[in-house]
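sorry for the late reply, my laptop died twice this morning and i had to redo everyting from scratch. anyway the thing you sent over, i finally got around to it. pasting the sequence first so we're on the same page, its 165 residues, then the predicted structure underneath. double check i copied it right bc i was rushing
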Amino acid sequence: MQPKSVSASRVTLSQLMTLTDANPTGNVHGGTIMKLADTAGGLAAMKHAGSICVTVRIDSMTFLAPVYVGDLVSIYASINDVGNTSMEVGVRVEAETFTTGETRHIATAYIVYVSLGDNGRPAPVPALRLETPEEERRQAEAKVRREHRLSEAEAIKSLRTQAES
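ok and here's the structure:
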């Protein structure tokens, strides 16, 4: 399997927010933004893997500002790092107000996907070819998050084993 560049799987998804996206306060539901982020992230993962990918973890999603009905939301997703069968995708959410032209950074998310083979089991993914210092930085940060995820899982497993004793 040939390594793939980050740019080969980059995705941009844009959608106008309408009344059907609103919560009772008139802002767009955070869940609507999360779904769009997961959709864009999943597309980037599938482009990289060349196969169906499923979400296994939303590592974090930080909302920085509200989104309003009438805003154009754009989601930018790209691969940060890959493992054997998994990929971390970084997702940036921006909203543009048409009347002013103002663009706001709304949210950032880190989502982990696993590639599935024809048998529905995890399948290998291509290595990641880094081409810029920013991509190298993003990969280094993704490796820190991966270590944190693994450490957290081990700590929880240990606590459960102790509780069962």
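Helices lie at 30-49, 133-164.
thats about all i looked at so far, will dig more tmrw
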